[in-house]
Amino acid sequence: MSAILDLFEARRLTLIAGPCVVEAPDMCLAIAERVRRMCDKRGVSYIFKASYDKANRTSGGSFRGRGMDEGLGVLARVKAEIGVPVLTDVHESAHCATAAEVVDVLQIPAFLCRQTDLLLAAAKTGKAVNVKKGQFVAPEDMKHAVKKVRDGGAKHVALTERGASFGYHNLVVDMRGLVQMRESAQCPVVFDATHSVQRPSAGDGVTGGDRRFAPVLARAAAAVGIDGLFCEVHPDPDKALSDGPNSLTFELLEKTLDQVVAIDRARKETA
Q1: In which domain, by residue range, is 254 found?
Q2: Which CATH number covers residue 28?
Q3: H-helix or E-strand containing 75?
């Protein structure tokens, strides 16, 4: 699909957005439709994202998703009915081939970015691969993850910045890392504005966050230069089943997108 080529080959600004985890099918379809309209209005390519399983929740009692079969079924509906490419996380090597039957981009979670077998299994599917930078990894060291994916046979691979551990229960974003990842790995770079404002495990068994800072970081990243913007969005973030504190409302996403598009355009015009 064109959005895949826009991000991975043309390096045009692309939005990756959706709920953290697959909840109700109708909700996912409504989110994808509304965000697609936002992007069409602004000439931005769009990839829908949602996880069929969140295997890395803080607490064992937290909602993980609707399971692989049902979750992938919802993603297949989004792809077919809304007409946009879809992205999902994979946590196990054995899941990659099955997920690749539906999705266009396989995403490697930050905690797993050094798991060689998982990276190779994702690459083997032939799908595009988006690798989240580990909170514990230096930006320039992510070139090794990219090499693993390329050696595994993947044509398209991107890196996503999502903050670095800053003591306990906090993350910080070093904007220099966006430049360092692009130069060292020679691949598209995405900025994850919403996971970067997480407060990991800060909510007594759940992850906290502060969504009001996501637009601030997104603007800064756009000024540095990014190929993609990653945001989690939900109709009612305070009731989301995962990552609610850092998920954006539709209104906040729309405002953020306007700002990022304007900054991206100005940066390119004066480059």
Answers
A1: 2-269
A2: 3.20.20.70
A3: helix 68-77
- DSSP summary character for residue 156: -
Q: Are 208 and 202 in contact (CB under 8 A)?
A: yes
Model confidence pLDDT, tens digit, residues 135-191? 999 999 999 999 999 999 999 999 999 999 999 989 999 999 999 999 999 999 999
198, HSE (Cβ side, Cα atoms, 13 Å):
24
Rounded CA gap, 242 and 239, in Å?
Answer: 9
Q: How many domains does the chain have?
A: 1
User: Could you report the per-residue pLDDT of 11-57, keeping only the tens digit for each?
Assistant: 999 999 999 999 999 999 999 999 999 999 999 999 999 999 877 76
Q: Residue 12 is encoded by which pair of tokens?
A: 């045009």
Q: How far is CA 149 from CA 14, 16, 27, in A?
A: 21, 20, 33
Q: Token pair for residue 116? A: 């060689």
Place of tokens 């974003």: 173
How many CB atoms are closer than 10 A to CB 136?
12
For the CA atoms of 7, 158, 224, 222, the dihedral, rounded to the nearest 10 degrees, stands at 50
- Cα 188 to chain centroid, rounded: 13
Q: Which helix (H) or strand (E) element contains residue 255?
A: helix 250-269
DSSP code for 192: E
What per-residue string of b and e applies to 180-193 under the rule 16 or more CB within 10 Å gives b?
bbbebbebbbbbbb
Backbone torsions φ then ψ of 151, nearest 5 degrees: -65, -25
Amino acid making up residue 137: V
Taking the model in full, what pTM does it have? 0.95
